[in-house]
Design goal:
- With 46 residues, this protein is mainly α.
- The chain has one domain.
- It is 37% helix and 9% strand.
- A hairpin with an 8-residue loop joins β1 and β2.
- The termini are far apart.
- InterPro entries: LarA-like_C (IPR043166), LarA_C (IPR048520).
- Pfam families: LarA_C (PF21113).
- This is Lactate racemization operon protein LarA.
Length: 46
């Protein structure tokens, strides 16, 4: 969505949903992540 560019401009990584965000966190070897819901997508922070 249009939010992807905004998220990446803030030096964060965009994920379209919770399962994708969790998969990204696991692939980075992270045990936790922050999710900022906006009603349409989620923003994980490494």
């Amino acid at each position: 969505p249009e939010l992807r560019g905004m998220v990446e401009d803030m030096k964060m990584t965009y994920a379209p949903d919770i399962p994708s965000a969790l998969a990204l966190a696991r692939s980075w070897g992270k045990e936790s992540l922050a999710v900022i819901p906006d009603g349409v997508s989620v923003i994980p922070r490494a």
